[in-house]
Amino acid sequence: MSSNIDEVISTITPSLESTNDGILKILEYEMQNDLPEFINQLLLDSKMMIILSQIERTKEGKYEEADDVREKSIESTIAQRVTIERGIKPLEKKLNYQLDKMIRTYNKMLQEYEAKGNDDQQNASVNNDNDDSSEESEDELAYRPDASSLMSKASKKASSKPEEPIQEAYKPPKISAMAPPTREETKNKPSKKLQSMEEYLRENSDLPMEEKSIGVNIVNHGRGGVKTDSERRKEKELQTYEETNFVRLPSTMTKKDKYQKRKELNNTFGGEDWSMFNNSRQLSEGTSRKRKPNSVWDKVKRRK
């Protein structure tokens, strides 16, 4: 392994010396001719500097066997390698792409310019041919008959005839037959069915049916009968409307209805009406009520 390194270093050393001599010559030339200074640094220069520093580090690590120097050289070599791989190579790729793009656009512009020049030459030649052909056609039509005189004669003949109005039978315009507009409501409208017949068929049928809970469709504790399907359907529609729109519709009950309902609720217990015990009239006088005077004389007499 050491022999291989010696051979590599022996080949690199003369190249470094020649490079050093070339750099010194370039510096002398710059000092003599006063060349402008370049502020920007080229990628090639940075690349070469990193490679030279790597070679110097390996050379120092060979002759100096100290561990700290060896570690420093290894760290610097790794940092330089990362700089080349992560920094310089991506920049080279980007610059290469941009340069290729610029070259392609330049070549395309040249091709378009040449094509445009060729088109202009062709158009010029075509225009010259057209001018020559038009001159030849003018020469051929120089001895043609006068067409304007013929037109004037034809116009005189047409003006001599009186214009007669054309009378024809009126023909109405043809209109394609169309059906009259129909309302869609009639199509979607459900067919009317007899409610009594529907209830009769429902009661006598043996098919399983969905029923409400017991007591839900009873009105006024059985005194108001049972709710019909239409009433239940109406209540369902109101309920769905209130739930979807988050509103509470006002009730149709009047103050009198509310008072009567509250009074009946107070007099009801166990599903029975006990309002007979809340009556203010005396039962000892009998169950027959006294008739109030209805005549005018009785009313006047009562006022006195």
TrEMBL record:
Q: Where is the composition biased (Acidic residues)?
A: 129-140
Specify where the region named Disordered lies, as residue ranges: 116-243, 268-304
Instruction: Please cite one Gene Ontology biological process associated with this protein.
Output: maturation of SSU-rRNA from tricistronic rRNA transcript (SSU-rRNA, 5.8S rRNA, LSU-rRNA)
Q: Name one GO cellular component term.
A: small-subunit processome
Q: Where is the composition biased (Basic and acidic residues)?
A: 195-213, 226-239
Question: What is this protein's record name?
Answer: Uncharacterized protein
Gene source species:
Candida tenuis (strain ATCC 10573 / BCRC 21748 / CBS 615 / JCM 9827 / NBRC 10315 / NRRL Y-1498 / VKM Y-70)
Name the residue ranges with Polar residues bias: 276-286
Q: Its domain of life?
A: Eukaryota
Tell me which stretches of the chain form a coiled coil. none
